[in-house]
Amino acid sequence: MKKTFKRILVLCLTLITAVSFVACKGKNNDDTTPTIEVGSLKETYGDWTGKSIEVGALDKGVRVEWLRDAARNFNAGTGSNITIKADESLNENLETFIDAKTGYDVYFTFSAQHQWVRWGLQDKIYPLDDLGVNFKETMEVCGVVNNVRYTMPYTYSPTGFIYNQNYINDIPSNGEFVKGTFPKTWQGLLDMCDSINTKWNKVTLGQKVVPLSWGGSVGDMGYVFEALWGQIDPVGYKAYWGQTTENVAGQNNKSLLVNENSIQALDCVAKLLNPTKNTNGQYYPGNSFSDSTSHSNLMAEQKFLNGLSVFTISGSWFETEMGEQIEDDEIDFYHYATMPIVNSGSKETIYINSPAEYFMIAKNGKNNNPDLAKAFLKYLASEERSRVFQAYTGVPTAMEYRMQKDTLSPFAKEVAEALERSAQVVSASDQKASLSGVLNLNVTTPFIRLATMAYSVDNAEAQLNDLYNTQYNDWNDYFKTFD
Amino acid sequence: MSKQETKARSGLSVKAKRRIFVYGFLAWPILHFLIFWVGMNIGTMIDSFYIYSNSGVRSFVGWENYAEAFKIILGQKDRGIMNHYALLNSLSLIPLALFINMPLTLIFAYGIYKKVAGHAFFRITLFLPSVISTVVLCLVFRLALDNSSGIIVMILRAIGLGGDGSQFDTGIIPVGGFLGNDSTVWGTILVFSVWTGVNGNLIYFSSAMARMPQGIFESAEIDGASQLRQFVSVCIPLIWPTITTISVTLVAAVFSWMMPSLLLTDGTSERASTIGLMITVGVKNDSKNTVINAMGVLVAVFGSALILSFRYLMSKITEEVEY
Q: What's the distance, CA A286 to chain centroid?
């Protein structure tokens, strides 16, 4: 009996181990088909025969397949030997890599606040002034400190709502919401939420479908707030993000953050969160899951794809980020929407996520070949590679180029078309030289508070006041590092 | 062969050879200790009196970093997970480890020693959480608490404590879920710690109990001592040195305890902060934040005093039994 039990246990453990190894199998990255003509690359970017560099790339969000494709083309066309090392936790270990004796030659990642500024000022990364890249106007200022460019911003990530068209076709019309069409106005969006909660009462997987799936533990609701603020008051929004380290030092700038327009934007979010009292007398986000405040963005997106919500907050990267689930379950009901209009006469807006991924060239690179690294970055910044990147990821680049919509997926095409017709809201403070992360508008906590307290017209102003006071206290700490 | 002859043959005395042999073995750990403990800690201590600018310039700031660290510890200044809950939470792990986890482990170990029914099964299954990665355990626990499909939530609903499954009626499940609500997040993490922590030291206690002389228990039984009396009056004193050692390591470990907080809340919950988490995340985000250095020094001083006092107290409770 004892022996039989031991045998069964050993068999079970062996099976678990074997299954774990199978599950850990990496993706097949053996696709070696170049996507564009390579003949003229040597003339344009130089002959790099026998020269090598290693690129460390963050394997999240937009992934690295597009970068591998670029490296294959560049190697084939110029004779170089560029290798791409994908790393899921690269941004968490950047500090170690940059401070080590040797590391990757080039990095594609994003860093914590003003890390890149420090590395630039400490001469740990190469200046990139001579790249000659044609950036989008709003991204031109990113990656520059003391008039020297240290990083090449690459992604230009539009955020927005992702909605389930099948559900939209089914939800009864209500107020400004018309059945079949995702609302174009904020009131229409609130009316749709009301219809979902009171008229539709759809049940999926044993649960009532909620309007919004929202990752409360991350800053995604901030996309909504900033897009609304930039839509309601484009001038005031720019003025806030355009502050310099000098004028944020005093308390004279409070009105830039706490004013009637920012209050209106935050109040819109409070109404979307719709705090509702439950049977225990506690308030929960009535348009979402009661445990939304602890969800991550990935969990929120998964719940949306499982049909548990009508829409979620994400961006152009949604299709790439959730690619496995979309492919496995053959899902095609998802579509992209810009931020609905609050005040008539305004233009629909898209908040561009920042800090976004960028490239930088390290001075401690193991091959120490900055010229080849720069040539490769120039190639990546070309119109062709911007198009290939967008075709792979659905995300535009930070460069000025003509989008080739016929190569995009239907979802990516919707994003591209939305970008052409809407106003874009860009803060990008984490990579602006004058600010460098000093104005890091962390609104995760205020949203959780707004979702879990009784609604009042004064709540938004109170939260913005709190936010300002927190920032004011933190600024003193940040300024010390700028001395 | 005389001593002089031995010395003459190799040029070294036996004593010298023995020293070389012993210190040769110790050289590596001593070097490791000097570099990674003494060197690192001296560097940390020195840096705690300086701040670094973005351009790498170091400026002396005296006790300023310590003042900042005290402000954080005392709750006068909070920044994300750098807050006063870190110390409170870390200290709350001490009674949990000493008065819940360790007694439970002792009871399980004693049950196995006494060969209760199914002891072979328990010996293996109770030890399993110790060999499974914390990452996996955290993932399982987190999924079990998911409001939509978690097994714990489903059980609570089945027994009428989890509401009716709607967002409006969630029974005892708080808004945000157990891990997303400020008032329940740390308690939930403590429950996780009990689940995964009771078995960690099972092997040490089992080994200590295996060495106990059987004759003492037989004498106790002849004298009419109950099982509980045998456990309290015979078993515990016999394995007291092991209990002392394990207790000291448990108390010392609370200052670096962080993984469950990090993995169950993504390191974002201010109420789930611990000293270990605060220092690790702080250094990861900004290795030039020297307030963290000051915090580390304070924790080292306070922690050392606490551990030494605790060790002294434990040694005074009962005399060591030789057998």
A: 26
Shortest CA distance from B264: residue in chain A: A294
CA atoms within 13 A on the CB side of A339: 31
Q: Are residues A83 and A53 in the same domain?
A: yes
pLDDT above 90: residue A200: yes
A10-58 pLDDT, tens per residue? 666 666 555 554 444 444 344 444 455 556 889 999 999 999 999 999 9
Q: What's the whole-number mean pLDDT along residues B275-292?
A: 84
For residue B250, give how far its alpha carbon lies from the nearest alpha carbon of chain A (Å).
29
Q: Are residues A149 and A275 in the same domain?
A: no
CB spacing of A208 vs B166 below 8 angstroms:
yes
Range(s) of the domain holding residue A121: 35-154+357-397
Distance from the B180 Cα atom to the nearest Cα atom in chain A, whole angstroms? 4
Taking all residues of chain B, what is their mean pLDDT, rounded to a whole number? 87
pTM of the model: 0.81
Looking at the domain assignment, is residue A473 inside a domain? yes
Compute the 3-state secondary structure of chain B and give helix, strand, coil in percent, each to the nearest 5: 70, 0, 30
pLDDT for residue B12:
80
* Sign, CA torsion A126/A132/A133/A136: positive
Q: Can you give the CATH number for the domain in which A46 is found? A: 3.40.190.10
Are A294 and B265 inside 8 Å of each other by CB? yes
Which of B121, B148, B168 comes nearest A278 by C-beta? B168
Q: Mean pLDDT score of chain A, rounded to an integer?
A: 86
A149 and A65 within one domain: yes
Tell me whether residues A452 and B175 touch, CB distance under 8 A.
yes
Question: Cβ of A481 and B52 within 8 Å?
Answer: yes
Task: Note whether A278 and A338 are same-domain residues.
Answer: yes
Question: Does A350 score more than 80 pLDDT?
Answer: yes
Domains of chain B plus CATH, in order, are 76-317 (1.10.3720.10)
Which residues in chain A are closer than 8 Å to B75, comparing Cβ atoms?
none
State the nearest Cα–Cα gap between A444 and chain B, in angstroms. Answer: 10
Counting one residue from A and one from B, how many pairs have CB atoms under 8 Å apart? 114
Looking at the structure of chain A, the number of domains it has is 2
Note whether A185 and A209 are same-domain residues.
yes
Window 155-214 of A: residues touching B by CB (8 A cutoff) are: 205-208, 210
Q: ipTM of the predicted structure?
A: 0.73
Contacts of A206 in chain B (CB under 8 A): 165
Q: Across the interface, which of A206, A210, A216 has its CB nearest the CB of B165? A: A206
Q: Are strands A349-353 and A423-426 parallel, antiparallel or unpaired?
A: parallel
Whether the per-residue pLDDT at B320 is higher than 80: the answer is no
Is A341 part of a structural domain of the chain? Answer: yes
* Residue A278 in contact with partner chain B when CB distance is under 8 A: yes
Check: CB of residue A350 under 8 Å from CB of residue A362.
no
Burial (CB < 10 A; 0-12, 13-18, 19+), residue B68, is buried
